[in-house]
Amino acid sequence: MRRWLTRPGLVLLAVATAVAAITSGSHAATRHEATYAYGSATRQGIDAYWYDSSTPLPALLILHGGYFNSGSKTDWASTARYFADHGFAVFSADYRYNTDAAWPGPRDDALAAVAWIKTHAGDFDADPAHVAVLGSQAGGHLATSLATYGAGRDHVDAAVGLSPINSPYRAWTQAPTTSATATRRKIRDETVILNRCYPDSADTDCWNRWTDSVAKTHASGADDAPLYLVHSSGDPIPAAHSTDLRDAETAKGANPADITVDVTSGSSSGGPLLTTTLKNAIVIWLKARTHTTTPPPQDTGNPPPQDTPTPRTTARPITTAPYKDDPVPPPPADENPLRSAAVTVTTGTYSYGTDPKQQLDAYYIPGTKQPALVIIHGGYWYEDDKSSWVATSQWYAERGYAVFSINYRLNAQTGWTAQRTDALNAIAWVKAHATQFSTDPNRVLLLGSSAGGQIATAVGTYGTGTKYVRGVVALSPVASPYRAYTDGQKSGASTSKQKLRDNSTLLARCYPTKTDTTCWNRWTDAVVKNHASTSDAPMYLLHSQGDFVPSTHSSDLCTALKAKSVSCTLTVVTGSGHASAILKVDGIHTKILNWLQAHD
Fold first, then answer.
1. Of 244, 268, 287, which closes a domain?
2. At residue 5, what are phi and psi to the nearest 5 degrees?
3. What's the CA gap between 381 and 408, in Å, rounded?
4. Which of 145, 395, 476, 504 could form a disulfide with 579 if both were Cys (CB 3.0 to 4.6 A apart)?
5. What is the 3-state secondary structure (H, E, C) of 32-74?
6. Are residues 114 and 250 in the same domain?
């Protein structure tokens, strides 16, 4: 029995097959095929295709495409066999999708796959010192990332990219509106999910992630691996992705002969570019750059497990945190003044779940049973914090409410429906601890702002909405993330609308298309009016005339609720304030308070 079937530490996931084939030489030989794991994640699998050889063969890693969120190593089986038949030990790898891991997770997977190949090279008669990579589209992006990350030659000898998306940022900028093709818009949306944010240079962490994902950012000239990059003239991933990378490498001192950018006729992209002529050319190009000289190393074992953070669960003083949405203005001192002596509000921070984001700030007056008001902050589902609502929470607590200002998991961490689930769990926690906060568990209301308004209205229409809350107030609620998406890709859309578009995409974790049922169902579920029923909570919805979240979000929702005989009031104030900025309108706090008191 061959050593690759028996060596400790080499995990075989599928029964190996042996296939009689004709190599590029003249004699019949046996091609072996088997599937292994190079990591612990579901998608960290690798298919091997190789022949017995008395001399080590150059290794070739193939990375599939698929918009960063689809595709499979098995799609490339015939191509893998072709290169195995032409003198390579071939490894076709899956990697985590952008929905599984943000950037640089997919690059980390590609690096791990290369390390696995080098560690186990001897089991496949491969040369660990000579590994090349071939990738298509999103996989091409990973291929050029391997070739340029750090000293690229330390990872691979050479990289082939078929329509590589070398710059996710370029892909984002080239599809701003519906004038771009659906393919380009889908790539745009998937790069947002890959980087977990709208590309904003003022958002340092976000911008660094986008910058890091652009291959030319890492260009270092002679230290990087040679590149063979192919596009078609009508490619939805234009050759500028690769000419930019070529120019960056040569500017750093790379030998121009080491970087080829080939533009073919037609409009093929990715795998369909692989004609017989191109495959033969790639074989010749790769063999010129992968010479076998080094014996295989021994198995070095698995990397240590990562530490898992322990969430905080004890009560703590309320703290502040930076936020990027419109600052919440404090209620005017002369609006609805207290009619009795000053009261002392007790405050504290508590955890309603195990995730660090599942926390709430409580503001209450002990001893008097009072209704509860749960406040859900905005911030594109991406940013902001419960602490921005301190003054407003204090104001409502002084006027007879036990107030709970909550955080929730943001869209960069997890997609819809986690945000609604967190709000429901926070409400359940408040009800379960009603005695502790002198609260009536049957008198809970919601106040949500912008993205938090979408969450609040989604709770009010979830199943039997009145089971959870007695009423919902929402400021500029993004009641239809899909409407926000379509508005944000119209010609002339403002930066705020584009940011909301991208964060709606990040919330849904996919490009909205009816052909992808799972994706479409998630978009549909996030649209609040789709859940309207006779048992929903009454709502009071507010926008401004120039709101970048237009009042049509709420008028559509009110129409759906009224059709089910549920009370819904829409108020449109003057100006162009958004969400918490509406609270600057004279008397608006009193109007909200009056509505809450009428429904608690």
1. 287
2. -90, -15
3. 9
4. 476
5. EEEEEECCCCCCCEEEEEEECCCCCEEEEEEECCCCCCCCCHH
6. yes
**Tens digit of pLDDT per residue, the chain (600 long)?**
344 444 445 666 655 566 544 444 434 589 999 999 999 999 999 999 999 999 999 999 999 999 999 999 999 999 999 999 999 999 999 999 999 999 999 999 999 999 999 999 999 999 999 999 999 999 999 999 999 999 999 999 999 999 999 999 999 999 999 999 999 999 999 999 999 999 999 999 999 999 999 999 999 999 999 999 999 999 999 999 999 999 999 999 999 999 999 999 999 999 999 999 999 999 999 999 986 544 433 333 333 333 333 333 344 565 655 545 556 888 876 777 664 456 789 999 999 999 999 999 999 999 889 999 999 999 999 999 999 999 999 999 999 999 999 999 999 999 999 999 999 999 999 999 999 999 999 999 999 999 999 999 999 999 999 999 999 999 999 999 999 999 999 999 999 999 999 999 999 999 999 999 999 999 999 999 999 999 999 999 999 999 999 999 999 999 999 999 999 999 999 999 999 999 999 999 999 999 999 999
Give the N- to C-terminal CA distance of the chain in Å, as an integer: 76
* Cα torsion 100, 103, 105, 106: sign: positive
Angle between helices 481-488 and 552-562 (to 10 degrees): 150
Query: What domain range is 265 assigned to?
Result: 3-167+214-287
Question: Strand, helix or coil at 357?
Answer: coil
Q: What are phi and psi of 125, to 5 degrees?
A: 55, 40
Residues 546 and 434 in one domain: yes
62: β partners: 92, 134
Same domain, 250 and 374: no
User: Could you tell me where the DSSP H helices lie in 373-516?
Assistant: 390-397, 418-432, 451-460, 481-488, 495-508
Angle at 413 between CA 410 and CA 417, to 5 degrees: 65
